[in-house]
Design goal:
Layout lengths: L3 H6 L5 E5 L12 E6 L4 E6 L3 E7 L4 E6 L4 E6 L2 E4 L8 H4 L2 E6 L12 H8 L5 H5 E3 L8 H11 L5 H10 L4 H10 L7 H18 L4 H13 L3 H75 L18 H20 L5 H23 L6 H51 L5 H47 L13 H10 L5 H46 L9 H31 L1
Parallel strand pairs: 4-9
Antiparallel strand pairs: 1-2, 2-3, 3-6, 4-5, 5-8, 6-7
Helix pairs in contact: 5-6, 7-9, 7-10, 11-13, 11-16, 11-17, 12-13, 12-15, 12-16, 13-14, 13-17, 14-16, 15-16
Length: 594
């Protein structure tokens, strides 16, 4: 047997397991006994033929297993037990027969010892050796549920014994309390919780429909509850008693507090009655004035603010929001995005098309590798399949980003047209400056919403490109195992593989087209990363400026710009945005023709 100090280190990790064979179950193992330790890493297996006798004392959980000394040592390797030459018993079992003593942790047993014979009888055939060699030294006295409840009431250390006895006599005999014992043992977040609740509710409903008396139902349910291990029933009763105490304390506190609160409130109201009357009168007067002011404020402002020197009246002193700066930031942001995209080999839509072509070329390369003689062909085909799938995702993300950019540009033009109309209405005294400020805030909210959507799409596209690079690194690592590609740089890896494997197989035109696409694949990926990073920077910077502009709405500036200047600047901004829109669509059309 393992030495004592080794077992002490494994305390809590040792397990005694019976393997019960059943001829009706093809998956059941042969009859055997296994003792595991070292957190299940090592086990000692006794075939039932080498077990002479099993003696069990149920009350203490004490097993004595007598063997003829023949056992098999196994160790866990990659999730499977394999035979080991190591002998943890130091030769004791091999030299002579041995009695193995096992003590069950009765505080936290995996299975109650008293269920041993029942489990053996249930899961084995009549001729099983387990039935013949098991000997139980003590016979357990069968307790009723009433015995268990009374034992808890007398021995529990929670609360007063007299209160527990009363609780057990009055409450624990009811059907709802019996069901509560079951449900408290099932964690609500487990998969069994809803099932147990559903079954208990179903039993109650069926009992009511069948006119089953509560006393009759109690007689049926009590034996079922009594099949639960006693220590679990005691645990549930402790929890129920604690919950009962908390409810009683809460009810007592609420009743006491309610009485005190009522006395205090009545006395305070009596003393504060005159003050409340005055406060209510002031509140009603102020509310009436505010309602009248808010209802007719716009009409009043339009009439008053047309008069000479009306700018001295507080009602007419609402500042004009800085539409000029807002429009300029819009134009700068989208012109930066357009300029950077068009400064490379083409717009983002062309870049998406190039990546799509490279994706198809990579698929052709995958087919060549699949039927090649490379030793890593299977792994390379799997990696290239993942690469092709991710390339599809990248192309789709770039198309979505380009579409989102075009949609956002259309929205900005629409927002600014409405802003221009609002400024002209203020100039002509058709609406007030306060209404203009509200429209300005609404416009910034819409722009900010468009920005967030574009930032989200750009971030997803950037993540897909990063994944594509990681996959390329993994493929490059695989090819270094092949002598043919050991010195190939990662950027030219696919082109080199296509040259070596497809030169004599693929038609010349297709060969040259795919070779050019595979050579430019890494370049296109880096261009896409650079474009999206610049787009993200511009959009984020614009988003920060929006927050600053929003704060300036409520703060009058030292030098306010005339409204005619705002109208002129917004008009110019609309034209510049339309120019960017035309440039974007022209490049899209050129890309389609190409």
């Amino acid at each position: 047997m393992p030495e004592k100090n080794e077992l002490e280190e494994d305390k809590g990790d040792c397990r005694l397991r019976f393997y019960l064979n059943n001829s009706t179950d093809p998956l059941s193992k042969q009859d055997a006994i296994a003792i595991t330790w070292r957190s299940g890493q090592t086990r000692l297996v006794f075939d039932i033929q080498h077990v002479l006798k099993i003696t069990l004392t149920q009350k203490t959980g004490y097993f004595v297993i007598s063997t003829d000394g023949v056992a098999q040592v196994e160790k866990l390797d990659n999730g499977t037990y394999v035979t080991s030459e190591e002998d943890p018993t130091n030769g004791q079992l091999a030299q002579h027969s041995n009695n193995i003593e096992c003590f069950v942790d009765m505080d936290n047993p995996v299975t109650q010892p008293k269920w041993t014979r029942a489990n053996i009888n249930e899961w084995t055939n009549e001729g099983s050796n387990f039935r013949k060699i098991l000997e139980i030294t003590d016979v357990e006295v069968v307790k009723t549920l009433e015995d268990v409840v009374n034992s808890w009431a007398r021995t529990s250390n929670i609360g007063l014994q007299s209160d527990r006895m009363l609780f057990a006599k009055v409450q624990l005999c009811k059907v709802d309390r019996l069901f509560e014992i079951i449900t408290r043992l099932i964690r609500k977040e487990s998969s069994l919780g809803p099932a147990i609740d559903g079954l208990t509710n179903l039993i109650k409903d069926l009992s009511e429909k069948a006119n089953v008396q509560s006393s009759e139902l109690e007689k049926i349910v009590a034996p079922i509850v009594n099949t639960i291990p006693e220590y679990l029933i005691l645990r549930a009763l402790d929890a129920m008693w604690k919950a009962e105490e908390r409810e009683n304390e809460a009810a007592l506190f609420v009743n006491s507090f309610s009485l005190i609160q009522t006395d205090v409130i009545v006395g305070a109201l009596h003393l504060l009655k005159p003050i409340f009357s005055i406060a209510l009168a002031l509140y009603l007067g102020w509310s009436s004035i505010s309602f009248i002011s808010s209802t007719f404020q716009n009409d009043l402002a339009l009439a008053v603010c047309r008069l000479p020197l009306s700018n001295l009246i507080p009602l007419c002193q609402t500042p004009i929001p800085d539409f000029s700066r807002l429009v300029n930031r819009q134009v700068e942001t989208y012109e930066q995005i357009m300029d950077y995209q068009l400064s490379h080999t083409g717009p983002s839509s062309s870049l998406a098309l190039d990546i799509k072509k490279a994706e198809l070329a990579t698929a052709d390369l995958r087919t060549l590798i699949k039927y090649s003689s490379l030793s890593t062909s299977k792994e390379l085909v799997d990696r290239l399949t993942e690469f092709v799938d991710k390339a599809k995702s990248v192309g789709r993300d770039l198309q979505i980003l380009q579409s989102r950019t075009r949609t956002s540009l259309d929205n900005l033009i629409t927002y600014n047209i409405f802003a221009l109309k609002a400024l002209e209405n203020v100039r002509d005294n058709k609406i007030s400056a306060k209404e203009l400020a509200a429209g300005y805030n609404q416009m910034m909210t819409l722009i900010e919403s468009d920005l967030k959507r574009m930032i989200l799409v750009a971030t997803e596209a950037l993540g897909s490109l990063a994944d594509l690079d990681e996959m390329l690194i993994a493929i490059h690592d695989l090819t270094t195992r092949e002598g043919t590609f050991q010195k190939t740089e990662r950027a030219n890896l696919f082109a080199q593989m296509w040259t070596r494997l497809g030169g004599n197989i693929v038609k010349k035109q297709i060969f040259e087209e795919n070779l050019a696409l595979l050579r430019d694949l890494d370049k296109q990926r880096r261009i896409a990363v650079s474009q999206i990073q610049t787009t993200l920077y511009s959009l984020t910077s614009f988003q920060l400026d929006l927050e600053e502009l929003r704060e300036h709405v409520s703060r009058p500036s030292l030098v306010e710009m005339p409204i005619e200047v705002h109208i002129e600047n917004v008009g110019k901004g609309i034209e510049r945005l339309r120019t960017s829109k035309v440039a974007l669509r022209s490049n899209d059309d050129a890309d389609v023709v190409t």
